Amino acid sequence: MITAFSDNYLVGHLTEPWNRAYAEAHGYDFVSDILSVDVMNTAVGMRSLQWYKVVMILRCLEEAKTRGYSHIVWIDADAVVLDPKSPLSLFLTDPADSNWVPDLIIAEDMTLASMLNTGVMIVRVSEWSRNLWKDVWTSGRSKRFHVKLFHEQSSLCSILQYRKEEGLQVYYPFRHSFSGGEKIKKTKHVLILNRDALNFNFGGWSFLEEKESSNLDPPLSDVEGHPESSQKLPFAFHAVGVHKVSAVLKALRVYNRYEPSSELLSRLEKEVILQKHLVNIMISCVSECALVCFIGVRNKTGY
Ligand SMILES: [Mn+2]
Question: pTM of the prediction?
């Protein structure tokens, strides 16, 4: 199991010990690259830091040859395992066809913004995987995502289509399972799971932080979007948006009864306050910009 984050990324320091403990409890090696921004920048060149994920996957695919690993599981530094009892072997095959061993097991994106979500994914150690990730890194088609949303995730989706991954066209136009598409999609090499299987975000969680202090243990029905009827929790909680620290903290406390060290907590509290200020500044900047644009447009049409 692998992850990476820059050493100034506090969310990573919050998720890493828990995810490591999960991996070690199941006998998986856990490798985390916690690096300075400078070192990461050097590794990705002119790209956004999110691209470090591809650098690390390619490196681990090479190392796997000598270490005898069959799979590499990537987990984002803003994601935490929610279902620590479940081994990863549960996800390695399609339950309906256990003879088929996919090279990539990935879930749909949480929103319609992207086809797939690379927050948690399982990469089989194979020649196909090496070629795929090499293409994601080197292809000219990736260039437009080097510094643009959603970086390596957009690039992976684009490359799979460009390579004409056999069977993917069956699902065009792509429909997510939460929007009427098939729950499980299979191509020749890729098993695409429904959003809730690997990578879940509890809708409004990040905005529940005010409630958090009064109610640290809400019933699941309080959590918007949670598949309450299902016995099984999604494998991981993956934070999105600007309130990642409080969302991840909540996932760790409520589901895992995990409390970070007091030293980390006090650093996190400062970060939460800072984030709130930043969001307020951003909101006021956005409205100012909107006003300026509006005036700009008015002026332009005036000519
Ligand atoms: Mn993420």
Answer: 0.84
Return the percentage of the chain with pLDDT > 70, whole number.
82
Residue 258 exposed, middle or buried by CB count within 10 Å (0-12, 13-18, 19+): middle
Q: Locate the domains of the chain by residue range.
A: 2-260, 262-303
253 has pLDDT over 60: yes
- pLDDT for the residue numbered 292: 57
Residue 215 Cα to ligand 1 midpoint, Å, equals 26
**Residues in a beta bridge with 79:** 238
Q: Enumerate the β-bridge partners of residue 238.
A: 79
240 C-alpha vs ligand 1 centroid, how far in Å?
A: 7
Q: Return all residues near 64 (Cβ < 8 A) that are at least 6 apart.
A: 72, 125
The 10 Å CB-count burial string (b at 16+, else e) for 52-77 is bbbbbbbebbeebeeeebebbbbbbb
Ligand 1 geometric centre to CA of 281 (Å): 23
Q: Which CATH class is domain 2-260?
A: alpha beta
How crowded is residue 247: how many other Cβ atoms within 10 Å of its Cβ? Answer: 27
| Cα(68) to centroid(ligand 1), Å | 28
Cα–ligand 1 centroid distance for 275 (angstroms): 17
Report H helices in the chain. Answer: 10-25, 37-44, 52-67, 127-138, 151-162, 195-198, 209-212, 244-256, 262-302
